[in-house]
C-alpha cells in the first residue's frame, strides 16, 4: 500500500513505473487517494489506473472533509472505491508523532500503542484486507498476467484469478452501490467532478474459485465485452445483477446471493447475456429473440447463424473463430451445424440463441479468461 499524495523527494514517473511494472508481474496494489481534497488523478501513485485507489468516508457515508481541519479525501474518477477513514483506531510505531486538533499522538517505544486517526491512509488498509481475503488459498500465475489481460483471449491453461486486473475488478464489482453522499469534487472552473459511488463490501468474499461465477463480476464483464465500457454505471450494474439474483415474485431472478450458482441462476445468466446482445444489435433479433434472416457478400459470415456465431466468439472469447488456439474453423463449423440442424435452420429460433449463449458462457475457454476452467 502506498500513500496517495506526492512525496516531495520522489520521482512521480519512477514511482508510477515501479507500481505498473510490479502489477504486470502479478502484484495487486491498494493505494490511498490522498488527503488534499483534490482530484486523485493528479497525485501519484493514486493516478495508476491498474491500482485500487481508495478514498475515505466517515460513518455518515459522506466523503471525509472535516470543515475544522485543512484536509479532505481526494476524489474524482481516479478513485475506485471508498472505505471507512474517519476516527479509525490506528497502530503507532517508529518514533511517530502526530499533531492534531485537541492533542498529540506519539510513539513511546512499545508494540501495542494506537491512536484515533483519520485519512485515506486509514481507508486503504480496509481494502487491502479485502484483497488479502480474496487471495487467500489461491495459487497465482504471476508473470503470465501481463500476457493475458482481462480484456483479451484466454490462455490454454492456468488460473488467472489472482491477476491484479481480475482481483481489482472483483473488489469493485462487489461494492455497496449508491450508498454515499458528498463524494464528488469541484475543478477550478466550478464544474462538478464525479467519483464512483462505491463503498467497500466483503459480503461476497471468499468467492467461488472462478470469479466469473460471482454474478456481479459476470455482469461487469458484459459491460466491457459487449459495450466496450471499462466500468458500468452503478444503477445498471445493480439492475442486471438483480435480473439473476432478484426475487421471482418480482418476475425475475432466483432469490440468491451473488455467489450462488445453480440451474435457476444459469437460466437468468443466459437471459441477462442475451439482453446485452439485443442492446447493441436489436435488428438481429425477432420479437421473441430468434434470429432474423440475413445475407451479405462476406465470403464466410454471410448468413444469420454465421454472423451470430462469429460474434459469440468475439464477445465471449475475445477472438475470431479461426484464431488461436483453434487456428481453424472446426469449432465454428461444429456449432454452426448444431445450431442450424437442431434449432430451426438458418436463421435459428430463440431456443438456438439461448443454446449458443449457454454453451459459450459455460465453456472452459470463457472461464479461463478469469480463473480456473
Plain-language structure description:
The chain has 373 residues and is α/β, with parallel strands linked by helices. It folds into two domains: 12-85 and 119-206, Peptidase S8/S53 domain (Rossmann fold, 3-Layer(aba) Sandwich), CATH 3.40.50.200; 240-368, no CATH class. 34% of the residues lie in helices and 10% in strands. It contains ten helices and eleven strands. It has helices at 12-24, 120-135, 164-173, 215-227, 234-245, 263-280, 304-317, 330-342, 350-361, 364-368; strands spanning 30-32, 52-57, 81-84, 88-91, 97-100, 103-106, 114-117, 176-177, 185-186, 192-193, 198-199. A three-stranded parallel β-sheet has the order 1-2-3, covered by helices on one side. Helix 5 (234-245) packs across helix 6 (263-280) and helix 7 (304-317) packs across helix 8. The longest helix is centred in the C-terminal third of the chain and has 18 residues, at 263-280.
Topology:
Blueprint: H1 12-24, E1 30-32, E2 52-57, E3 81-84, E4 88-91, E5 97-100, E6 103-106, E7 114-117, H2 120-135, H3 164-173, E8 176-177, E9 185-186, E10 192-193, E11 198-199, H4 215-227, H5 234-245, H6 263-280, H7 304-317, H8 330-342, H9 350-361, H10 364-368
Parallel strand pairs: 1-2, 2-3
Antiparallel strand pairs: 4-7, 5-6, 8-11, 9-10
Mean pLDDT across residues:
90
Helix content: 25-40%
Estimated structural class: alpha/beta
Overall outline: elongated
Give the tags:
373 residues; Rossmann fold; two-stranded antiparallel sheet
Task: Briefly summarize what is shown.
Helices cover 34% and strands 10% of the residues. With 373 residues, the chain is an alpha/beta fold.
